[in-house]
Amino acid sequence: MRYALRKVGLFALTLWAAVTLNFLLPRMMPGSPADAAIARLSQNGPVTDETRAAVEAQLGVPDGNILQQYLAYLDQVIHLDFGISYAFYPEPVSGLVATALPYTIVLVGTVTVIAFILGTLLGVLAAWRRGTWLDALPTVGGSFMNTFPYFWTSLLLLFFLGYVAHLFPTFGAYSATAVPGISWDFFVDILYHAALPAVTLLITSLGGWIIGMRNAMINTLGEDYVTFAEANGIGGRTVALRYAARNAILPNLTGFGLALGGVVGGSILVEQVFGYPGIGFLLFNAVIGQDYPLMQALFLMITVSVLVANLLVDILYGVLDPRTRR
Amino acid sequence: MTSNHPAQQAGPSGAGPSDVGPPEADPSDVEEILSLQDVSVVYEPVGAAPTHAVRGVSAQIARGEFVGLVGESGSGKSTLGFAITGLATAPARIEKGRILFRGRDIASMDQDSLRSQRQGGFAMVLQSGMNALNPVRTIRKHFHDIFAAHRHVPRARREERAAELVGKVSLGPEVLDLYPDQLSGGMRQRVTIALALSLEPQLMVFDEPTTALDVMVQHAVMDTIRDLQASEGFTAILISHDLGIVLESAQRVLVMHDGEIVEDAASADILHRPRHEYTRMLLSHYADPRAEVVTLPGLEDRAVLRSDDPSDASAENPASSSPEPADPSAEPPDPSAARSAPAAPAAPPAPAASSDGASSRRAPVSRLRSGGTELRLQGVSKVYPAARRSGRAVRAVDDVSFTLEPGGATALVGQSGSGKSTIAKLITGIERPSEGTVHLGDTSVGDLGRSGLRDLRRTVQMVFQDPYAALNPLNTVEYTLARAVMNLTDVRRDGARRRVRELLETVGLTPVEQFTGKLPHQLSGGQRQRVVIARALACDPQVIIADEPVSMLDVSLRAGVLSLLRDLRESIGVSLLYITHDLLSARLITDRILVLHDGKVVESGPTARVMRAPQDDYTISLLDAIPNPRRVLTP
Amino acid sequence: MSENTTRASSPSPVGHRPHPAVEALRGGLRAIWGNRKARIGMILLALFILVALLAPLLAPYAPKDNSFDRNLGASAQHWLGTTAAGEDVLSQLIHGARISVIVGFGAGSISTLIAVLIGLTWGYITGFAADVVNFVVNLFLVIPGLPLMIVIATYLQNGGISVIIAVIAITGWAWGARVLRSQTSTLRNRDFVQSAKFSGERAPRIIFREILPNMTSIIAGGFFGSATAAILAEAGLEFLGLGDSSIVSWGTMLYWAQNSNALLTGQWALLFAPGLCIALLATSLTLINFGVDGISNPRLREGSTGR
């Protein structure tokens, strides 16, 4: 319990720091992002004083009172009010983010869970059958695939399976002709569109889990409790899973945060190639359109999502390691 | 093959067959449970030269026997233990020979039949029992895993059987609900014994079962092992570096050296009539600290009964009071001789033969100080604030007062957690006392700032426990010493170089040229510890604190380092605070002793008097916990 | 080792002969070479570096020479065809190696340097300061790297390759710092560190002269790891058009390929080759790390089954 409380406290502190970093970033940059943003905004029509104040609270004015700006910014964040997008004028930023977020969370979330489970199993197998092809293939193959640039894998799959073989759709999250709603057809259509982006993420992130788990398990296989379990004649499967793998999974979970950040980053590139309307695609459009408010809001949302996922993993860790319960 | 029968194998069968072999049966009737026939084990690490750890070992173990397998580090004893229990895995490989367990060869068995042999066959208790339990499984699950693997206990009986087994090792059934990290080291080792026992083995191999434990816990665990062997009737092989422990428990001892069994004889014969030179050497390093006169090779008795004044050189009376030759190559020394035959005619002690290869020639140092600095602790306590988890403040040191005279030698004795290392930290300024004062002459150590502490290093130096860890593996001996010289003294360049040489000579590492360029891994353990001592001497300190300086060394190397420490004290006049759990070494090199328990001094006084006539219960139980083969093996 | 002994009588007390750390390094290289995977990695890496160095000699044309027909398929003149702007793909590919190698080594070195400075200091200090550093490093660890890079790079529009290197280094040091920190705090409790304190050494010297050389393999592993990450991140940023799109790199090649609809014109070589080069370069570093890991952790050595 104490462990969970400490993790939640740390989460809150980290969240605050991330929010503050998001506030500081544009203010630390050379030039004035706020002026650039207002100039960009004025292309869409006259800029009201209200809008100007909102933009400045978000992106900073060179001579303003930094504390007041900070408080105004915090107020905005708490109300999830990130202003108006320029790239998608006059859509409010929060609405755009809310539309895109589910796509990415479902895509990245599902793929990460599958990759973690699959990679962990393959890693266990590789370590247990060390020196055989069951080790060599996933290890070398995994580390090779791990170095594929996300966008390159996307481009290749898109090119060969989309454009050449016409097996998969080449753009979007659902067909232009599909009727969004809760129906079996729409669900299948969504899956069909998500397949290639998901496979890309899976191919590229799987190797990391395999190698991480393999190395961790090779370490635990050298531990005394594994030798002692074997000395007691406990069966291979039990030793491999309940003794070696069960302990090896703990350090691997700790690496989750880093890996997750990587997959989220990868998803930006993947979504861009497939035109998949998630956070990444939106961020790409915000970058192209120099839509600073949208960019800031997206960065914040991405960070918060990763933080929440990390908190969940930390709590899972607490469940899996009895030593944290005391 | 027939010639390998235990009776013949047991060495001095010609000398006295009547007291050889297991006492309960006539040797010729005894059924062999294990037979080693010309077993060799080789280590073949990838990219390195293979090492032959066990070389052509043959031995027979009879059913019900308690056999000790003794040897120093690198002797191959653990490798042999792993081979016997079918646990030899790459890079170790059984090169040749047969390991017959009840007539079946373990060496050629496949994993599955090996696994089935483990129930009702052979079991092993590992050296580091601390880590032998899976940290994420409760003790109950450990038992159930074994029951499930062999199905030798019906499901309904399993819970009851687990409780029964932990009961056998004097633990209550409540430990079944706990995780390994909730148990103390001794309890964990007991649990591993109970787990091994749950296999109902006929043969149990104990690989250094008590090495990581405190003396008193060690004693209690060994008692449990002995009782279990008697009650359960399994055959036991006890692997240990400590001949004392082995002699106390085993009926027969195999002495291993460089991968070979050099002696195989009944315990009483090993003790009284050792035949091999190596066995004699090992034995010569045992003595009873309670004896009137205590001697090790190269370390004459301090005869401190008469010398509370250590500066009195005449207190050293090696010739008149040493009852036996210190030369291991002469007549086999008997540790009991000191007590049983104090009036034996004295022979002049042989010159100190440092067995770690370092020359024992000392540099002619004659800088005996007249007025040194006194170290004085007054009412010192150290309280550590409550840790995040346990939530209870720890009083590591509680109201300790003592004075270390210039040139004096005081032992600080206690188990781990007794506060002895904390006292060292307080004296060296690493920690500050919560109450009381530590004075070095007029300086209050607790009040020193950063630069004051640096100055303190010129006066107080430290010799560390583990010579393998105390030297940076990437620095040469010369670099290590020269840095200390240049940091702590004003000597530079040629002067520093000369000083380094002088230091090496002082600690007996000669010819100096052979040692200056060496890296730590090119030196033996004893040589390393000499470098550590030389480093401590770099700035002519007044006080040396030696924290368990020999506990990590093989017994045969200990005496050399101990005699060096003692000689330094006498030749240079440095005062010595000797921190240890080992009463024998304390007896040999110190004049005064403080026995610490739970942070408090429970007894203090002249070392010999405290050892010979202890007053406090704790001191008595510490002394009783020292393995004493005499108790069971008096002829 | 024997020459060590014979030369021990050399006049310097501190030693000007090859430092033991240098010898350890030599031994380390031998050990890496002994690992089959690492050996392949080293050969592959050497090949890429050679191509990068000799790019002007190897490339058939200038990388920006756009005097050729556009969107050509593979032919004898243009083995990999031409781009939509009429440049030779093979020449671009060969020149592109330079950027990736520079970014890999540049950003890898800088972030390793930051990781070493922060990780070692952090591992050595204790108390509140260590807690603060812990928090900051964890923050950098959990904040997703690529989005942060994208945001910073967007603000610093068109800063060129040095800005890219800086951005990657700033966002990429945290993991290495954490690994080095845990190793440092293990080593700092070793007696030889205490012993150095008793020899009168000061903290910076203990950290960087006593502790650091004992972590060479871990630092090397960290370097290859962050170089890999840097190469991939640079390519990603270039691909999004956030770098300097006027330079020729594997990332910009793919950027232009996508923007000029190479997917539709069917020039698979233009899509395939740059990405494969990125993957192979990154793989070479990963493979080398298999050997480096074996030095830091004997259990991971090839051939030792550990069981």
Describe this structure in words.
The complex is a heterotrimer of chains A (326), B (635) and C (307). Helix content of chain A is 76%, strand content 0%. Chain A has helices at residues 2-28, 33-42, 49-59, 66-78, 93-128, 133-146, 150-164, 184-221, 224-231, 236-254, 256-274, 279-288, 292-320. In chain A, helix 5 packs parallel to helix 13 (292-320), helix 7 packs across helix 8 and helix 11 (256-274) packs across helix 12 (279-288). Chain A is globular, with a radius of gyration of 23 Å. The termini of chain A are close together. The mean pLDDT of chain A is 86. Mean pLDDT of chain B is 81; it is low at 1-28 and 304-370. The relative contact order of chain B is 0.10. Chain B folds into three domains: 32-281, 3-Layer(aba) Sandwich (Rossmann fold); 289-339 and 346-385 and 393-459 and 541-635, P-loop containing nucleotide triphosphate hydrolases (Rossmann fold), CATH 3.40.50; 478-538, no CATH class. Helix content of chain B is 32%, strand content 21%. Chain B is of the alpha/beta class. In chain B, helix 6 (185-197) runs parallel beside helix 7, helix 16 (493-506) packs across helix 18 (525-537) and helix 18 runs parallel beside helix 19. Chain C has a single domain (27-63, 77-300), classed as MetI-like fold (Orthogonal Bundle), CATH 1.10.3720. Chains in contact: A-B, A-C, B-C. The A-B interface holds A 223-225, 227-236, 238, 242-243, 246-247, 250, 320-323, 326 and B 85, 87, 111, 115-119, 123-124, 126, 128, 131-138, 145-146, 148-150, 179, 181-182, 192, 195-196, 198-199, 389. Chain C: It comes from Brachybacterium halotolerans. Chain C: It is a multi-pass membrane protein. Chain C: It is found in: Cell membrane. Chain C: Residues 101-289 form the ABC transmembrane type-1 domain. Chain C: It holds the Pfam family BPD_transp_1.
Spell out the blueprint of helices and strands.
The complex is a heterotrimer of chains A (326), B (635) and C (307).
Chain A (H helix, E strand, L loop, with lengths): L1 H27 L4 H10 L6 H11 L6 H13 L14 H36 L4 H14 L3 H15 L19 H38 L2 H8 L4 H19 L1 H19 L4 H10 L3 H29 L6
Chain B lengths: L5 H4 L22 E12 L7 E12 L3 E5 L6 H8 L7 E10 L2 E2 L5 H8 L3 E4 L13 H12 L7 H11 L16 H13 L5 E5 L7 H18 L2 E6 L2 H7 L2 E6 L2 E7 H6 L4 H8 L33 H4 L15 H4 L34 E10 L9 E11 L4 E5 L6 H8 L7 E6 L2 E2 L5 H7 L3 E4 L13 H12 L4 H14 L6 H4 L8 H13 L5 E5 L7 H18 L2 E6 L2 H7 L2 E6 L2 E7 H6 L4 H9 L3 H5 L2
Parallel strand pairs in B: 3-8, 3-9, 6-7, 7-8, 13-18, 13-19, 16-17, 17-18
Antiparallel strand pairs in B: 1-2, 1-4, 4-5, 9-10, 11-12, 11-14, 14-15, 19-20
Helix pairs in contact in B: 6-7, 15-16, 15-18, 16-18, 18-19
Chain C lengths: L1 H5 L13 H15 L1 H18 L1 H4 L30 H36 L3 H15 L2 H11 L5 H12 L1 H15 L2 H8 L4 H9 L4 H24 L10 H10 L2 H4 L2 H29 L11
